Amino acid sequence: MKMSASVFIPATPQIVWQALNDPEILRAALPGCQTFVRIAENEFRAAASVAIGPVRSSYSGALTLFDIDPPNSYRVTGSAIGGSDGSAAGSAHIKLTANNQGTDVNYEIEAVVGGHLALIGQRFIDQAAKKMTEDFFARFSALIVKKASYAEL
Length: 153
What we know:
The chain is built from four helices and seven strands. It has helices spanning about 15-20, 25-30, 115-120, 120-150; strands spanning about 1-10, 35-40, 45-50, 55-70, 75-80, 85-100, 100-115. Strands 1-7-6-5-4-3-2 form a seven-stranded antiparallel sheet. The longest helix has about 30 residues, at about 120-150.
């Protein structure tokens, strides 16, 4: 599966960058995420409950950041295992670009799924990935705006 898009966030690249590296914001923004913890400077562990088509399962995995260019871009690789329901592995390139109103977040994602998850069909997987990404960025943007509002008080 490959996916790419651009999302506008109404905050400066520095604020977006900080949020993209904040485990608490990421946990709150990721759909179904139960835990998201930093285990090293550029490494995280996460657990989430996810529904993709008829498959509902809990997944645990790890993410590693590299090619880090603050506050402009980074690459991330990750993998997750959902027991007998399947697994996923992938990578993403995240690039932040300032504009007059805030930040454009450009992303390119490549992922591969295995196990029962792979058997449900690419259409379900693509739809679920698109929806989860849209939900993530909607929540992420709202959390940044809310945090900025509190900072102004």
